[in-house]
Prior knowledge:
It is built from ten helices and nine strands. The protein is of the alpha/beta class. The protein has a domain of 162 residues: Rossmann fold. The N and C termini lie far apart (44 Å). Adenosine-5'-triphosphate binds next to helix 2. Belongs to the ABC transporter superfamily. This is ABC transporter domain-containing protein.
Amino acid sequence: xxxxxxxxxxxxxxxxxxxxxxxxxxxxxxxxxxxxxxxxxxxxxxxxxxxxxxxxxxxxxxxxxxxxxxxxxxxxxxxxxxxxxxxxxxxxxxxxxxxxxxxxxxxxxxxxxxxxxxxxxxxxxxxxxxxxxxxxxxxxxxxxxxxxxxxxxxxxxxxxxxxxxxxxxxxxxxxxxxxxxxxxxxxxxxxxxxxxxxxxxxxxxxxxxxxxxxxxxxxxxxxxxxxxxxxxxxxxxxxxxxxxxxxxxxx
Length: 251
Ligand SMILES: Nc1ncnc2c1ncn2[C@@H]1O[C@H](COP(=O)(O)OP(=O)(O)OP(=O)(O)O)[C@@H](O)[C@H]1O
């Protein structure tokens, strides 16, 4: 992928948010969320159930608009960046049209996305042993997650947002999936923001850590710095969450 033609200016973050807030009714589910995701590398977005991770990803892809503050993706509004094909998003729960054949999903992707790479998509599926003639609904959970990732990668986005795409997979399949993400995105220079509950696998799968607690970003920084400072990642995250590692949905 040629990142140079449309690449970010030096130092421009992939995603930056300033005091972003989002409310549903009178309840603020994000408040004062400030964050800078550097270009390149895999960023882990962690936090308990209900902390606001999906809400933040939906704002970044332009699916919803903030009720306070603002955010930019490569210096543009999220909607503008997504319309340009700069943002790929894999939502929770294997977001495929189950009755469609995989090849039909690729054709839809090709029609909708300006930088679509059909050759890449077909080669990736072949490498995974997934026949484009199969219906999405007949694939295993792991295969569906891989097809969803293939569709997102074939858009050739500059920022890839993953909302727990591997949550339903068994530990071995999850590890393989994350290794795929890391290898392929490193090869293409894509920035990945990856929502996950599995803190134990972060240090091998991710470069940066963002911790969200009760709708606020309580930590953002490189994982290498934490490790160099002698922090165990799980302990660090638990401390950052201040004991909020159970569901916050009822809070
Ligand atoms: N459309 C909506 N209407 C009302 N409340 C919502 C809506 N979407 C999300 N919420 C609430 O906002 C809060 C944050 O939800 P969000 O899905 O962003 O959390 P999360 O960190 O992704 O959680 P999980 O890890 O369980 O997926 C939750 O309390 C949720 O119930």
